[in-house]
Amino acid sequence: MNGKMKEKQKKGLIRDWIFLGISIIVAGTLMLIFPDKREVITSTSSQFFMEMIWILPAVMILMGLFSVWVPQETVVKYLGKSSGIKGITLALLFGALPTGPLYIAFPLASGLIKKGARVSNIVIFLSAWGCIKIPQELVELQFLGAKFMAARLVLTIVFVIIMGISIEKITEWQNKKTNKTQGSEDNESI
Amino acid sequence: MKLTVIFINVFALCCLLFALYKDKAKTKKALIITLRSFIRIIPAILMIILLIGFLVGFLPENGIAKISDEHSGFFGVFLTALLGAIMHIPSLLSFPLAASLLENGASYAIVATFIVSLTMIGTITLPLEIKELGKKVAILRNGMSFIIAIIIGLIMGAIL
After folding, report:
1. pTM of structure
2. Do the Cβ atoms of A73 and A112 come closer than 8 Å?
3. Is B157 within 8 Å of chain A by CB?
4. Is ipTM over 0.95?
5. What b/e readout covers A108-125, taking b as 16+ CB neighbours within 10 angstroms?
6. Per residue in B13-71, pLDDT tens?
């Protein structure tokens, strides 16, 4: 399983570098065809490159530290049994700390549901994982400014909590409805 | 140098020193992970940076601003949310892309919607999400994320 994952990652890496090579060739050709655009393209790209390179090592170090210090077992241990405000806070926190793309979190979330975690907390956890990660927020601060970052962070937290609770209510209500018509055999179908 | 850059680097450095003080072996492991993910993300970063250069170079002057103005209302935000939902790029890279759109005249509403929709909705990974979490939760989560991306964008547009 682990070997397979590594193999897949390696393939992905090679594919990314091939894509990059193709992009550079296409970019070079386009710049040859449109020499008047060369100036603006290179200056824009190098400006963004500089902005990125000044913060990227720091951001990546933070991601590395979080991934070792907040292992998935810890998340499962604490999030599985918490509810109420404590559950919501933990879901936000544990979503915002670990790193990796969102799809890594799906099996984790599925394990949490089997352990009896509330649907609201799972949805909040997944949303926090997707869009309010601390290293991501730092990149947002760098590129979009403090006001933008803070406003989006607050709004996202508020709406994500509302969404989590609504989805839980909807699934509960639907489960009740099917229970009434079918008896209470399989309300654990999730 | 920008204050933000100093803040981010000092923050990371403090965390790193604290980690070293706490547990050297674990920190070493973390730094190896850092190096590995660094190598993994470099091609994607360079591609996005090239893409931004070409976006700015080839879109007509104020082209984005014009589109953004013409569809500044609900429709523009709706289209942006759709675009963000379909695109599949590392979320770390959505911010420089969003910044380049903003610099070229896109509205705050558009940019905020794009970020939220891109980071929360995964159309490509939806089959995996359905398999792991069930149809009901997965579809509700993605659907409602789409709606809140639009709401957040509209509020951001109003307050910024």
Report:
1. 0.85
2. no
3. no
4. no
5. bbbebbeeebbbbbbbbb
6. 999 999 999 999 999 999 999 998 888 888 888 988 888 888 888 876 666 666 666 66
Contacts of B158 (CB under 8 A, 6+ apart): B109
Residues within 8 A of A (CB atoms), B 63-122 only? 90-92, 95-96, 98-100, 102, 108, 111-112, 115-116, 119-120, 122
Nearest to B95 among A102, A143, A163 (CB): A143
Residues of B with CB below 8 A from A27's CB? 50, 53-54
Task: Work out whether the CA dihedral A28, A32, A33, A39 comes out positive or negative.
Answer: positive
Structure tokens given for A12: 């992905």
Q: Could you tell me the two tokens for A4? A: 């397979």
**Euclidean distance between CA atoms A125 and B5, whole angstroms:** 29
Report which of A138, A13, A6 is spatially closest to residue A63, judged by C-alpha positions.
Answer: A138
Q: Which of A111, A130, A124, A108 is nearest to A168 (CA)?
A: A124
* 3-class DSSP state of A34: coil
Per the listing, tokens 């509810």 go with A83
B88: left (phi over 0), alpha (psi -120 to 50) or beta: beta
Q: Which residue of B has its CA nearest to A168?
A: B137
